[in-house]
Amino acid sequence: MSESNTVVAVSGLRKEFVVYKKTGRLKREKTVVAAVDGVDLRIERGEMLGYIGPNGAGKSTTLKMLTGILTPSAGEVRVCGLEPVPRRIALTRRIGVVFGQRSVLWWDLPLRESFDLLRHVFRVPADEHAARLRRCREMLDLDEFADTPVRQLSLGQRMRGELTAALLHGPEILFLDEPTIGLDVVSKQAVRSFLAETARRGDTTIVLTTHDLADIERLCKRLVVIDHGHVVHDGTLDALHHRYGSRRQVVVDLEDPWSGDLDLGGAVGEIDGEDPRRVTFSLTNGASTAGELVARLATTVGLRDVSIVEPDIEDVIARLYATAR
Amino acid sequence: MGAALARAGFRRYSTYRQATLAGLSTNIVFGMLRMYVLVAAGAAAGGVMAGYTVPQLGTYIWVGQGLLATILMWGWTELSDRVRSGDVVADLLRPVNPVWTYLATDLGRAGHAALIRLLVPVLFGALFFPFYWPREPLSYPLFGVSLVLAVLLCFACRYLVNLTAFWLLDIRGVVSLWMAAAGVLSGLYFPLAFLPGWLAAILQYGTPFPSLMQFPTDVAVERGGLAGQLERIGVQVAWTAVMYAVVFYVQRRAMRKLVIQGG
């Protein structure tokens, strides 16, 4: 891959924080905690990458170092070919940032005016600004609340405004820190479709942190999992499930109580709860597929209802910690 | 960019009509109280106090009441609030030094305040109380210059007070200190000429406070004639330059602290 296609290049990235612990009336002990501890990462143009991990894993710290608002303790960082902290001002024109819990909009001005101000702050040519805004307005339904002061917007509306604000100067890469946090289902879907569409156009690289399984499944082809400051996985979601043996589950409601003596090609049934007719099968890798299992059940015992439970990302992460330690 | 932000600042404040009205009536009521006290003192002193005639004291008070809101001496904690909440990172994600964006917005605010909060108390005072209108036509533009300098300087002082939030997080103590110092030392409560000459001189040249209020009002009442007006404006310019140098320096330190230690 040529250098010009690499949007983010990170090697040996490390961030230490000093934490003071009180040990006596006046004494305190100084400990150094590494929030990010030797992260290597390369992101190519047009990628959509999910950066996940539990609270305190180092996700936001990494994003802050990539966006130039935190100086790394050690390691190399290049975003759009620039070193973020020393070149912060130049970098701001080339990146877009949404922090789910922060706002870049003007609190007491209508959304429309915030967008107009951003055009001036970033010195975007009027026609480019108008074209980008038009696209966002259509896709995110901004018109119904464009004249409402930002302080009166609902969280979902505000987040749609934040996304627009982050894109109006045409960034090469968009950093999103938990963009769907606290949103209702409809707003989450609006945000996701918008991001998926933005990614599909291919000219904007997207890096997203989230705790939301659906965000990851819907959006991220590539997944980087970080824990205790280390990258513990870098690959697709499937590869992650495969590696940590997470299983899809088939939950069936049978006509008769489950006896457990059927040969179902390796799938093991378990009754959970009170009802002996409700059985949960875990599909292990290499065993029969959900289709085969359901077909076999339908021919051998009466089947009333079927549902397939996808493995939970939190479950996957939980497994991952167990192996990482 | 500056003009757009200033327009936004103007609009932001013009939407809060009730607050403007409430602030305006408070200004006027306090102006009347100050007026009666100083007029009584002026009359007791035989009509002239420390070189101010009673109409000049009237102008001093009403222009001062208007200045209070125009320079916004008290009650601006927007930056420190953003530091405390962490929203300040949004300011770092823009291709402009935050000093300029906040200043541009503040100039818009000041423009709105000058139209309502300065003009109305001055007209009120001129209508109902002894009032000294500047004799020289040049005094009006000079007052304008002095006013703009006071706004710029006051913004720098407030911004500096707010910057301490990067170290202290809670700046209530610093704000109280600033409020007390600015109130007494700027000449808001009484003209600094009432003080012994040496003390007034130290304050006027050695601190930025008189440049906020004493000097613009002195320019309005034509104290010391043209030479006095120009001297005061000169001191204002000097203090404004000094304070902005300090603001940029402290902000660089604050940013370094932020980007190294984290929010």
TrEMBL record, chain A:
SMART domains: AAA (SM00382)
One GO BP annotation of this record: response to antibiotic
One GO cellular component term: plasma membrane
Keyword Cell division: no
Main location as per UniProt: membrane
Keyword check for Isomerase: no
SUPFAM superfamilies per UniProt: P-loop containing nucleoside triphosphate hydrolases
Location of this chain's protein in the cell: Cell membrane
Domain ABC transporter positions: 13-253
Membrane topology, record value: Peripheral membrane protein
Keywords: Antibiotic resistance, ATP-binding, Nucleotide-binding, Transport
Pfam families: ABC_tran (PF00005)
Gene Ontology MF annotations: ATP binding; ATP hydrolysis activity
Domain of life (superkingdom): Bacteria
UniProt-recorded name of the protein: ABC-2 type transport system ATP-binding protein
Originating species: Phytomonospora endophytica
Automatic annotation (TrEMBL), chain B:
Pfam family, one: ABC2_membrane_6
Source organism, top-level taxon: Bacteria
Keywords annotated in UniProt: Membrane, Transmembrane, Transmembrane helix
InterPro entries: ABC-2_transporter-like
Transmembrane regions: 21-45, 57-76, 114-133, 139-161, 173-203, 233-250
Name of the protein this chain belongs to: ABC-2 type transport system permease protein
Gene source species: Phytomonospora endophytica
